[in-house]
Write a structure and sequence with these properties.
heterodimer, A: mainly alpha, 21 helices, 67% helix, B: 204 residues, mainly alpha
């Protein structure tokens, strides 16, 4: 007690007060208050450890799952090439068809410098170098194994394809207008006849359609050999086109147009037929030739050529390989002439003149004389 | 604090423990202070039913504010402050004076709650009949004299003799100066001595 309170406190009175003041609340009131106190604590704050155990700690899990899915999706998109992921299947098929038709479009003449540059570039591909002397005899045999290399799934026998493959698009048109000295001698002569032009055009449509149908959903990467063959085909087409008058091209293509469906290949062929061929040796021809020679090289990695085109490319590669060594080619022509295969010799001579720029200068006098005098 | 609260724990520590969620601490606090608070309220309102109601309200208020309790003063002071404010609210709601005098509570028969409270005082049951009657008489006179005190003097007397608060604590609780509290106590004790004079001498 405070000392200041001492005078105010009466011990006797305090003792009397303690003795006579003993009231307490009832037991019911005690229980009610204690129960309320316990209930309040039960719903009130608890120990820190208990509260921590019941605290939700997994709020970040949905965020983590979303972030993981996003990272995986971005990774897949980065690993997938744009052609496979961003182009719709129908667009891919149309692109393959357009590319197949464009590869058949005859390019303008290739200047010797461009040809030399491409020769140097192709020199890196050993598979493209063959023995020119044996090419004539093994022509069909080599064309067949070349196809599976560049074409994943050949759909037709190799022999017909070898003769039908050149009859695609503008290339067929160009050959159909050529003067054929030996009609009916070989299948190639048949393809070149005027009556076969329409059949060949229809065959070209069928081949283009087959190419579209056989194109895989996801185009595989074109092997280097196939790319070289494509470039060779382009250059051969350019050489063939150089020998053909533009008027003949227009005439042949106009015979193809009526009564045909409007497929992608038809559209491409028609657009080519309506475009006049540039004059030989003109700047425009050189530019377009360069452009057409460069375009397949850029587009080649996107898709592989269809089987029919592979066959064509293989045969053209043979001719191109022969053109690299004109002397051996001349020897082969002379050999065919000496063996009595006049038709084959004339055909080889014609191809020699088509592909070798300075053919007339290289041809020996005896062959020139024989060529001028020989009749198919 | 884990386990049962020790009896030696201070009131403030027990209240803090109860605010942290230990219900057993409240049990100890309630056992310590339930009688003093109840009697404080009972002596003022002189009605057992009203005292029960006010008593329950005081403790429920203590339970409600347990989380915000800050031991800035003695727990006893804080608890009796709650009781005092609740008593003032009760009187204010009843439209009565701040502290009613004993005469206002007497019924038409001349009996008052003080007399009934004296009857309810638990006497020493094993005492002799003569002593029991004497004690009952002393108790009756004591409670009658207390009820006759002015409310402020009664309040000061109850806070000191029943709750054990100091003059400073009483002054802070009632909102008056310490000298005023001293004066109120001096008058209250003097009146009680005068009322209990002959009995007090015999009983002591």
């Amino acid at each position: 007690m405070n000392p200041s309170d001492a005078p105010e406190r009466d011990p006797a009175l305090e003792r009397a007060w303690r003795a006579h003041s003993r009231e307490t609340p009832s037991l019911m009131l005690d229980r009610a208050i204690l129960a309320a106190a316990h209930r309040a604590v039960g719903s009130g704050p608890q120990d820190a450890s208990k509260a921590e155990a019941t605290r939700p700690q997994r709020w970040w899990m949905p965020l983590a799952a979303a972030a993981t899915i996003g990272v995986i999706a971005i990774g897949i998109l980065q690993l997938t090439s744009p052609d496979q992921s961003l182009v719709a299947p129908n667009e891919r098929v149309a692109a393959v068809a357009r590319r197949a038709v464009e590869e058949q479009v005859p390019a303008p003449a290739v200047s010797p410098s461009v040809d030399d540059a491409m020769k140097e570039r192709d020199a890196a591909a050993p598979a493209a170098r063959n023995d020119i002397a044996g090419l004539g005899q093994k022509k069909k045999q080599e064309a067949l194994p070349a196809a599976p290399v560049s074409a994943p799934a050949p759909q037709k026998p190799a022999a017909p394809i070898e003769r039908e493959a050149p009859a695609v698009g503008g290339k067929l048109v160009a050959r159909a207008t050529e003067p054929q000295p030996f009609p009916g001698a070989t299948d190639a002569r048949k393809n070149a006849s005027g009556e076969m032009k329409r059949d060949a055009a229809a065959g070209a449509d069928a081949k283009a359609a087959d190419a579209i149908e056989s194109a895989p959903a996801v185009a595989p990467q074109t092997p280097p050999v196939a790319m070289a063959e494509e470039r060779a085909a382009s250059r051969k087409d350019a050489a063939l086109e150089r020998q053909q008058p533009a008027a003949a091209t227009d005439k042949a293509t106009t015979g193809v147009a009526p009564g045909r469906s409007g497929s992608a290949s038809d559209t491409a062929v028609s657009s080519f037929a309506t475009a006049p061929a540039p004059p030989l040796g003109s700047p425009r021809a050189r530019e377009s030739g360069l452009a057409r020679n460069e375009a397949p090289a850029q587009a080649a990695p996107a898709a592989a050529p269809p089987p029919a085109l592979a066959k064509t490319l293989a045969s053209t590669e043979e001719l191109r390989a022969k053109a690299r060594d004109p002397d051996a080619w001349i020897a082969r022509i002379r050999k065919l002439r000496d063996e009595g295969h006049t038709a084959d010799a004339l055909r080889e001579l014609r191809e020699f003149r088509d592909l070798v720029p300075d053919a007339e200068r290289r041809l020996p006098a005896d062959l020139l004389t024989w060529a001028n005098s020989a009749k198919p | 604090m884990e386990g049962s609260p020790a009896p030696a724990d201070s009131d403030e520590a027990l209240m803090l423990a109860y605010g942290a969620g230990r219900a057993a601490a409240f049990d100890v606090l309630y056992a310590r202070h339930k009688g003093g608070v109840y009697r404080y309220l009972l002596r003022h309102c002189r009605n057992a039913g009203t005292a029960d109601e006010l008593f329950q309200d005081v403790w429920m208020n203590a339970i409600r504010v347990r989380a915000t309790y800050v031991p800035t003063a003695k727990f006893t002071t804080w608890l009796y402050t709650l009781a005092h404010h609740r008593l003032v609210d009760h009187w204010r709601a009843a439209g009565q004076a701040r502290f009613a005098s004993i005469d206002d509570d007497a019924d038409a028969d001349g009996n008052s709650d003080t007399r009934s409270l004296v009857e309810a005082i638990p006497g020493a049951e094993h005492d002799e009949p003569e002593s029991r009657a004497q004690t009952r008489e002393l108790g009756t006179e004591l409670h009658a004299a207390l009820a006759a005190l002015p409310p402020d003097q009664r309040d000061a007397f109850l806070l000191q003799y029943e709750s054990g608060l100091s003059l400073a604590e009483i002054a802070a609780l009632t909102g008056v100066g310490m000298e005023t509290v001293k004066s109120r106590l001096r008058y209250a004790v003097a009146k009680l001595r005068a009322a209990l004079g002959p009995l007090r001498e015999e009983w002591s």
